[in-house]
Amino acid sequence: MIALDTNILVRLVTRDHEGQALRVKALFDLHEEKEGVFFVSDIVLCEMCWTLDRSDRHSRDEIGVVLAALLENRSLSLESPQAVEEALGVFRTVEAGFPDCLIAVKARLWGCSKTVSFDRKMGDFPGVEIL
Length: 131
Known about the structure:
Elements: E1 2-3, H1 6-14, H2 18-30, E2 38-40, H3 42-55, H4 60-72, E3 76-78, H5 81-91, H6 98-109, E4 115-117, E5 128-130
Parallel strand pairs: 1-2, 2-3, 4-5
Helix pairs in contact: 1-2, 1-3, 4-5, 5-6
């Protein structure tokens, strides 16, 4: 298994650096028949979403499409696929960013009674208390 850093996924999605994007595509092409060959951590997904939102100015809908595509990509092994899928569903219905959605979902899945935050955008989440 090969772990992917955030910048690899960002190049794949944005193609903002053509030479690097071509190298990422070649890496994926080289392993296209292998299922689960690339590991993507939750931190990498969160950094990617932040980068797409802040640096590249992608819309929430575009970020949702990217996350859904990553969930469906057979060559990727996500660290927490169930949590990512559930967080994506929440992300599509609230104002908060995907990283906040993943924080709340993972806390619930780990058995936490609630997540406390100062972030008012998380106020609509089930199981989140604004402190």
